[in-house]
Every structure is written in structure tokens, then in C-alpha cells.
Amino acid sequence: MNSTWNGAQVAEAAGGRLIAGDGEADGPSSVVVDSRLAGPGVLFVGLLGEQVDGGEFAAGALDNGAWGVIVDARHADQLRQATRGVVIEVDDPLAALASLASRWRSELGCAVIAITGSTGKTSTKDIVAGMLAPSRRTVATFENFNTEIGLPLTILGAPAGTEVLVLEMAMRGPGQIAELTRIAKPDVAVITNVGPVHLELLGSVEAVAEAKAELIAGLSADAVAIIPADEPQLEPHIRSDIRTVRFGVGGELSELPSDLELPFASAHMRTNALAALAAVRALGVEPTGLIEVELSKLRGQRLLLEGGVVVINDCYNANPMSMRAALDDLAESASGRSVAVLGEMRELGPDERRFHAELGAHVRNVEVDVLVTIGELARSAGPTFGGENLYALNSAEEAAAQIASIVQPGDTVLIKASRGVGLEVVAEALCEVLPAAAGGDA
């Protein structure tokens, strides 16, 4: 952050009241919601969570030398006599965090690219950041900081002089993308795709499209929308008063330029790269040469292990669209046997078993050699796979214990499931038995 605001201005930007401390004091250098990170120069925001009330840790943050705290009225009364740090009282700490971030975004005066979608938003964000890095001072969403808490923290973590913010936007229900858009005020909006995710909450793919399209609805008239050319669910949400660029087959941007080199060859990643290219071009950036892309953790990283085993660690999340894309990539890239270790896809609503059965058929159709299912729902993929090399396991822990006996030298192993399944323990177990080979990355 490193703002030029003083204490009184921070309180005003947060929509609060300064009730203790020096209003003329120089502002904080950073903002956190974890009191364990609240030290000198840090502003701690005491959020009310489902399990923990962050305001209860505000006094301790001040004792540890924090620059100041933002708390609601329940905790403010106890801190009015604080002898160190700034105390700001607000009605709603989460709303204050959003207000502070929105004001800092305006203070930065930088361009903002916002990215959402049913699949591929994190990879697209990583590619956009890679394309911008050589020519623009860029700050991008870190890991899963893409929610009503994470997005404001990403903005507030951008230092003065930032030229582009690349913000990933996640959603679990209606209205959430709209709120993130209000905070971020994007100049460029990217929707990577629309598919059957969060159906348990939203009910239909049409409702998913409507929720994602809140990003388009919240744009100013001089913004640019980037959408897939083959996504009819988004067409009713296109605005005639803003410029829209479609990527993919049949769109304005259907091919990557020949002078652009990317560190991956899979079809779905190159589609993500098309979306990323459209986004950076909207800011006047034309990337060329080799693009260095650092993929976020658990999202498709390839690791080369001893014995020529390649692990594709893609266990951060999963839905029918991303599973199919990952399996296509596995089938195309494996030089030896292809092994799919697939856990449950969650939040798919009443058709969840059908989606898993269709997944097993896709595993068979792309000729993956070995299928390992994990969990009761994923077990539904077994009969439609119908292959001899089928293992149906009950948990990630059971899979971690058996994976080394299933994998053979030269195998390429895809590990993928919804986050709650916790399949990273399977990748970790395999890496313990087969240490990384020289070079590490595949």
C-alpha cells in the first residue's frame, strides 16, 4: 500500500471514525486480516468470521506494534483508551475493507483487468501477468485471494506506482461478482467460459452465466469485455455501449501470433492464452517472444520425478469442463502410460452422479490407460470407463498409501479433484517415494 494518507484519511477511506490515536500519523504500509501478521506499519482489520471474531484480536495486534486496527462497535469501546496505534471504528469491518480497497484502487490510477469464469480463470490470470511483466509494473491475485476478502487485500497490497492490477474473481452465488466489480472498477473484463459449476447453489448453467455476467453489467462505458466466441449463454448479457472482443474459433481473436512462445501446448491452455492476449491488447500491450508463466500452486504444474514419472498436480479444483480439458491434455502429452487419479467433483447438484459417469466415459474415449477414482461419487466413473486398470479408493489418504504401487516408470499421472477432497496428499506421497529428477519441472 505505502499510501500518503494519514490516520484520519485512512478512517475516512474506510468509512469509519477515528476514536483513538494520532489522526496526523503517517498511514500504514500494509493491511491484513490475520492478527498474527499485524506488526509495525500494519493495519489490522478485525473481520467477523463463521468460526472466529477477528475483533477479539485487535488489542493484541496493537500490543504487537500494529499501526492500527479497524473494528466494529462491539470492540471499539474496549479500545478507546488505547495508548498506542490508531483505532478506527466502523459499522461493518468487511464493508470497510472493501471501501478502503476501492479508494486505494482509485488512488493508484492504474489499469485493472478482472477475470472470472467457470474454469481457467486462475491460469488465464497467470498468463496475463506473464504477458504484462516485461513492460508493465503488474500486481496479480496471489493464489486464491479472489473473494470478497482476498480481492480487497490484493488491491491494498499493490504499491504506489503499480501500472496494472490483474484480479481474479470467484463466486459462489448471485451478487458476489457484482460486489467484486464494484470494488475493482475494471477497465478490462474477461469471462473465460461458462459451465456446470456451483449448480448445487445456482441450479442451472443459465444462472451461472447470469452470475458471471455481473462482471459485464458493472463495467463503465469505456471498458472492454472479453468473452468466448462459442458461449451462447453470455449473449443475452452483452452490452451495446461497450466494446466486446470474442476469442476462440469464430471470434475476432482466433489464433495466437506465430512470434509468441508459450511454455505449454495443451489446447485448453492455449485457449486461455487467447483470452489473456485479448486482455493485454485492450491495454495496448503486444507481447512477443517467450512468455514466462508461473502457474499458481496445485493448478496444472508438471513435476518430473525419478524413473521418468511426470506428475500433473491439478488438485485445486474440478468440474466437468476442467476435468475434460485436463484429461485431453493428459492423453495428448503422455509418452508412456497415462494415469488419471480423479476425486469427486462437488457442488454439482442433483445430476452429480450423471456428471461423474460421463467423466468415466470421457476417460475411456480419450484412451487413458489407468483410472483411479477417489470417493463415492467418483466411483460412478468406473463402470463407464470399463477398463481393466481401474482402482476405486475411498479417500485421499487411502490413495496416498497405494499410489506408489500403481504408478510405473514412464507414467504421466494427472491428479485432480474438487478442493475439499484434498488430493494434494497423493501428489506429496508420490513425490516422497520418487524424488524430483534433475531439473524438476517437466
Task: Describe what this molecule looks like in 3D.
The chain is an alpha/beta fold. The chain has three domains: 7-92, MurE/MurF, N-terminal domain (Udp-n-acetylmuramoylalanyl-d-glutamate--2,6- Diaminopimelate Ligase, Chain: A, domain 1, 3-Layer(aba) Sandwich); 109-290, UDP-N-acetylmuramoyl-L-alanine:D-glutamate ligase; 301-441, Protein-Tyrosine Phosphatase, Chain A (Alpha-Beta Complex), CATH 3.90.190.20. It contains 16 helices and 20 strands. α4 (93-108) packs parallel to α6. The longest helix is centred in the first third of the chain and has 16 residues, at 93-108. The protein is globular, with a radius of gyration of 23 Å.
User: If helices are DSSP runs of H or I spanning 4 or more residues, what is the number of helices?
Assistant: 16
What is the CATH topology classification name of the largest domain?
UDP-N-acetylmuramoyl-L-alanine:D-glutamate ligase
Could you tell me the radius of gyration in angstroms?
23 Å
Write down the overall mean pLDDT: 92
Alpha-beta classification: alpha/beta
Note the beta-strand portion.
Answer: 15-25%
Helical content (DSSP H or I, runs of 4+)? 25-40%
Instruction: Kindly report the oligomeric state of this protein.
Output: single chain
Distance between the termini: 37 Å
Give the class-level CATH name of the largest domain: Alpha Beta
